[in-house]
């Protein structure tokens, strides 16, 4: 078995020669969350076909793979976060793996290697599954644990585009029915609360909840890890597959929450940010799940638009529909959290989700640590040298919490980061104070880098997701494009925002995979990345203007920029001034490393009349314009500066 093309050494990635590697790439791709070819949320469905769907063709048909992969390498990317879902592997039923899909993904991974791309596999999820408003787990899981997914919408237990959206209306956006970026509200609704609590804390909190003779937690985790293992066995021979993600943005469930206390502000115990809409307690969610009409307060923006306040109340599950196949008592009632008495919900243990055996539950130390160990052991039973790309719930950041200690060896911090204001309001003003915004990014991303530095004495950090919506400013760029404008000014706001982000990634020497590249993306406010009206793809069919392989990119100047892909030594400083078209790399050169520094130099940023200046007179360099690379061989050990500018 060939040695991996990338490994970890302290806080850096290195190649087999010992060169420091900056991994810079994309998530491939946003529509891998939904079945192929027409499973996107722009199409209505009742999910009744959940056992027979296929994901073969996500992220793209194999016959199109070379075109897409060569485009990505042409833009300078060298790593992929390859998205798959548990559902894609095991949708037919327990331990019934989709062999055609496994073969397909293995071939996508092999072709990526042919194009010089390393990758790690991300088993992706958002708010548990497609049937609960996102993606991830297969539909048969619900029946297995005792839930009837056909009742979810009627019981107000989920917020799902296919249930909320009126596909007969002409409006592409329907803010009155399905507001943009509202899918995340599912984390506080009954189904997600039940499933995430069972997945991570079932053995502690509901020990008598059995599925197939196992505790519900063991049942769920064993099947999840079984799907991961099935795919791992298909790609173990590929040296460009360097590891696996633990699980995308794991949910917290109700762990750490009071049973009947409303969440009014993020706390260490419950860091989930407030969002407009109904604000559920665990007890209210359990009542509604059991079929009890339940009054829930509704939050809305205050006058300052910076704080949320109670605006009204709503009656959830007015028709009294139970989502449990067996109407009750539910597993949490049987375990002593609450009881139903004369038709009324009675609190039995207010701290049921917060304290266990006299000790406050810690989601990271008590629940995530054994999960990381379990995933690491499973993938390394297949290939012992694989890297674990570990994720926490993104909601814990900023609360002082981080990864538990110790973590499995050779773990990478694969945390996510977004400018929440850009996501929330889909606006970016190029006339704003960009220096202040950059300082804010430095502080936030610097904090994430610090978390990586704490893992096992120091591990690399790869920002697993970051990016921007392309339908910024009410889709202004699309309107300009439709009017015939084709100059880069159409994407000025997007390129400026991305440029700031990459400036900070350079300054902090962070690795990254931008969200995302969606081969099927459209300039359509209903479609976008084919998932819940999100539209963050750096590529769209609608931007294709010619047969040029590079055609189709959006705001390419914002992300296709010079950087040191491999360094003959260790980077001290790296920066790119897009306005001056000036790139500077300072590094501690190590001539004993038998391989040159390789700097990606996109033709779009620095022309073929390139000027190269070296501080080391004994060093030598070459420009390979067809590869968009400058190679520098160190002449002497010590601090060396390479400057590239447009000639």
From TrEMBL:
> What are the GO BP annotations of this UniProt entry?
carbohydrate derivative catabolic process; lipid catabolic process; polysaccharide catabolic process
Sorted alphabetically, which keywords does the UniProt record give? Glycosidase, Hydrolase
Q: GO molecular function, one example?
A: hydrolase activity, hydrolyzing O-glycosyl compounds
The residues covered by the Glycoside hydrolase family domain are 69-252
Ranges for the Glycoside hydrolase family 5 C-terminal domain? 561-643
Matching Pfam families: Cellulase (PF00150), Glyco_hydro_5_C (PF18564)
Q: Which InterPro entries does the record associate with it?
A: GH (IPR017853), GH5_C (IPR041036), Glyco_hydro_5 (IPR001547), Glyco_hydro_b (IPR013780), Glycosphingolipid_Hydrolases (IPR052066)
Residues in a coiled coil are none
Family that this chain belongs to:
Belongs to the glycosyl hydrolase 5 (cellulase A) family.
What is the name of the protein in this document?
Answer: Endoglucanase
From what organism does this protein derive? Answer: Caulobacter mirabilis
């Amino acid at each position: 078995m060939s040695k991996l093309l990338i490994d970890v050494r302290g806080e850096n990635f290195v190649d087999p020669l010992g060169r420091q590697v900056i991994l810079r790439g994309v998530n491939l791709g946003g529509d891998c969350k939904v079945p192929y070819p027409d499973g996107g949320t722009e199409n209505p469905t009742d999910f009744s076909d959940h056992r027979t769907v296929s994901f073969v063709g996500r992220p793209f048909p194999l016959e199109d793979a070379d075109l897409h992969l060569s485009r990505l390498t042409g833009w300078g990317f060298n790593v992929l976060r390859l998205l798959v879902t548990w559902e894609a592997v095991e949708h037919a039923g327990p331990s019934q793996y989709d062999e055609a899909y496994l073969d397909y993904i293995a071939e996508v991974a092999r072709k990526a290697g042919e194009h010089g791309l390393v990758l790690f596999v991300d088993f992706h999820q958002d708010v548990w599954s497609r049937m609960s408003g996102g993606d991830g787990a297969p539909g048969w899981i619900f029946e297995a644990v005792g839930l009837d997914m056909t009742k979810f919408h009627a019981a107000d237990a989920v917020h799902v585009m296919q249930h909320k959206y009126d596909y007969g209306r002409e409006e592409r956006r329907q803010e009155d029915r399905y507001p943009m970026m509202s899918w995340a509200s599912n984390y506080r609704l009954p189904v997600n609360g039940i499933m995430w609590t069972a997945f991570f804390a079932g053995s502690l909190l509901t020990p008598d909840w059995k599925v197939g003779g196992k505790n519900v937690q063991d049942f769920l985790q064993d099947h999840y890890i079984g799907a991961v293992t099935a795919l791992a066995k298909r790609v173990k021979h590929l040296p460009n597959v360097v590891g696996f993600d633990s699980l995308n943005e794991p949910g917290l469930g109700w762990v750490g929450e009071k049973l009947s206390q409303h969440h009014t502000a993020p706390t260490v115990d419950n860091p989930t940010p407030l969002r407009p809409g109904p604000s559920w307690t665990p007890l209210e969610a359990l009542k509604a799940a059991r079929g009890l009409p339940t009054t829930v307060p509704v939050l809305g923006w205050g006058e300052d638009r910076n704080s949320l306040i109670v605006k009204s109340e709503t009656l959830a599950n007015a028709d009294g529909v139970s989502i449990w196949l067996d109407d009750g008592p539910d597993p949490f009632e049987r375990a002593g959290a609450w009881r139903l008495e004369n038709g009324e919900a009675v609190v039995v243990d207010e701290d049921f989700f917060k304290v266990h055996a006299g000790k406050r539950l810690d989601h990271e130390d008590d629940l995530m640590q054994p999960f990381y160990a379990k995933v690491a052991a499973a993938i390394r039973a297949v290939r012992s040298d694989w890297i674990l790309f570990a994720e926490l719930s993104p909601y814990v950041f900023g609360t002082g919490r981080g990864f538990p200690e110790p973590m499995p060896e050779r773990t990478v911090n694969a945390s996510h980061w977004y400018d929440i204001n850009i996501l929330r309001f889909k606006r970016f003003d190029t006339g704003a104070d960009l220096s202040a915004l950059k300082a804010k990014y430095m502080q936030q991303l610097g904090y994430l880098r610090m978390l990586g530095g704490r893992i096992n004495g120091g591990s690399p950090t790869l920002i697993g997701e970051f990016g921007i919506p392309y339908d910024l400013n009410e889709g202004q760029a699309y309107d300009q494009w439709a009017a015939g404008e084709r100059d880069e000014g159409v994407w000025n706001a997007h390129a400026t925002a991305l440029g700031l982000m990459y400036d900070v990634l350079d300054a902090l020497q962070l690795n990254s995979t931008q969200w995302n590249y969606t081969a099927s993306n459209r300039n359509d406010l209903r479609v976008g990345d084919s998932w819940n009206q999100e539209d963050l793809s750096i590529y769209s069919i609608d931007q294709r203007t010619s047969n040029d392989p590079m055609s189709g990119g959006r705001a390419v100047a914002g992300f296709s920029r010079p950087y040191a892909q491999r360094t003959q030594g260790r980077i001290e400083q790296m920066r790119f001034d897009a306005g001056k078209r000036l790139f500077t790399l300072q590094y501690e050169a190590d001539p004993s490393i038998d391989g040159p520094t390789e700097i990606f130099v996109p033709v779009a940023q620095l022309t073929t009349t390139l000027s190269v200046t070296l501080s080391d007179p004994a060093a030598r360099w070459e420009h390979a314009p067809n590869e968009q690379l400058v190679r520098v061989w160190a002449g002497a050990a010590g601090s060396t500066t390479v400057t590239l500018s447009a000639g």
